[in-house]
Amino acid sequence: MTLTKKQKGIALIIALVLLTSMTVVGVSAISSGLMQTKMATNQNMLSMAFDAAEASVEGIMHEGGSGALRTGAVVDGDGNPRYDALTQARTDGQVGVDNQLDMNALPTCDELANAIWSERRVNAAGLQDDQIHDGAGSLMNVPPIDAWSKSAFVGLKNLTDPESGLVSSIVDTDGARNRTLLEVFVVKGCGHVEGSAVNATNRAMLSRQTVEIGDN
Fold first, then answer.
1. Which residue from 84, 86, 178, 195 lies 20 to 30 Å from 74 (Cα-Cα)?
2. pLDDT digits (tens, 9 = 90+) for 113-145
3. What's the predicted TM-score (pTM) here?
4. CA atoms within 13 Å, Cβ hemisphere of 191
5. Do 143 and 42 contact (CB within 8 A), yes or no?
6. Domain regions of the chain by residue span
7. Which pLDDT band holds residue 101 (cuts at 50, 70, 90)?
8. SS3 for the chain, per residue?
9. Where do the Type 4 fimbrial biogenesis protein PilX N-terminal domain residues begin and end (predicted)?
């Protein structure tokens, strides 16, 4: 059976339509795959940035737990005492008013904080005992990930006895009445994957017990 010119033309048109459809489907599949890959990459970068932000907060907690840094027993090359970020923050001043903090007034990760805020950075060396974490460098090198933090002193909070509800206090051997209090700090941890627009922040409120010396 011989096809007429008209039948051949129709068959050619159908073949072209099918070919075009297959091309569109193929391009759509490639575009979808590229989009999924891009989304997965962005999610992975965001996860790494959040991990860096958490590491920077952990760095402040690690520093703040050092008795040597808290008392100034660690000195620099000139013999000057060095203090942990929390002790330094309390010395520098109070960011809160009447122990209240405006969360909307916190500096951004990229903003240069004023002198009330103590800044620290965690690099590939990790967390070192009795050391100030203010060295240069990234937390990771491949890909380069930066981790830094800003800490500020909010105020003092009474430490109350859970059973009696009374404010906790002690009396030393000299007869001075000393109050046991909690120092309250705000810490903003930041993480960034270099070469990307990905930034992550982690905000935490930390408290640390202290004793205020009373009068004789």
1. 178
2. 677 888 999 999 999 999 999 888 899 888 899
3. 0.73
4. 23
5. no
6. 7-212
7. confident
8. CCCCHHHHHHHHHHHHHHHHHHHHHHHHHHHHHHHHHHHHHHHHHHHHHHHHHHHHHHHHHHHHCCHHHHCCCEECCCCCEECCHHHHHHHHCECCECCECCHHHCCCCCCCCCCCCEEEEECCCCCCCCCCCCCCCCCEECCEEEEEEEEEEEEEEECECCCCCCECEEECCCCCEEEEEEEEEEEEEEEEECCCCCEEEEEEEEEEEEEECCCC
9. 8-58
- For residue 128, give both structure tokens: 């070192």
74/150 Cα distance (integer angstroms): 21
Query: Which two structure tokens, joined as six digits, stand for 102?
Result: 């405006």
Tell which phi-psi region holds residue 67, choosing left (phi > 0), alpha (psi between -120 and 50) or beta: alpha
Query: Cβ atoms within 10 A of the Cβ of 48, count?
Result: 20
Q: Which residue has the tokens 């890959």?
A: 37
